[in-house]
Amino acid sequence: MLLAEIARYVRSANGRKREKGKNSGLAAWQLRRIEERIKDVRDKGAPALVELAQLCGISQNRMMCNFKASTGITIHKYIEDERLEVAKRLLAASELSTKSIAFQL
């Protein structure tokens, strides 16, 4: 009877470990790929979520949940912030009009 109880406990503990790790965040290489692609916003335009998920080899929903777990913000907010930073740099350092900068981003 004691062995049966130990077996139940071990199975239960393993299940909890899997659930905790489910949304524990992205691996460093996944986060780096996403950040690099988002930083290319001026050259390639804003990335689609499906494109970012494919870069990481995971589903779109999992990527969004794990990104938030890793960074504390949503991926949409991160993309928006990066686009605004690029726009600020372009406005400060170039003669481009706001219309052309908005079109690029």
- Which structural class best describes the helix and strand composition? mainly alpha
Q: pLDDT average, as an integer?
A: 84
- Report the radius of gyration as a whole number of Å: 21 Å
- Indicate the low-confidence ranges by residue numbers: 16-21
Count of helical stretches: 7
Q: Largest sheet, described in full?
A: none
Ends distance: 66 Å
How many beta-strand segments? 0
Globular, elongated, flat, extended or rod-shaped: what is the shape?
rod-shaped
Helix and strand sequence = HHHHHHH
What share of residues are in beta strands?
Answer: under 5%
> Residue share in helices?
over 70%
Descriptors:
rod-shaped, 105 residues, mainly alpha
Please provide a written account of the structure.
This protein is an all-alpha fold. The protein has 7 helices and no strands. The longest helix has 21 residues, at 2-22. It has helices at residues 2-22, 28-39, 41-44, 49-56, 60-71, 75-93, 98-104. The chain is rod-shaped, with a radius of gyration of 21 Å.
Task: Show the helix and strand layout.
Layout: H1 2-22, H2 28-39, H3 41-44, H4 49-56, H5 60-71, H6 75-93, H7 98-104
Helix pairs in contact: 4-5
Please outline what is shown here.
The protein is mostly helical and 105 residues long. The chain contains 7 helices and no strands.
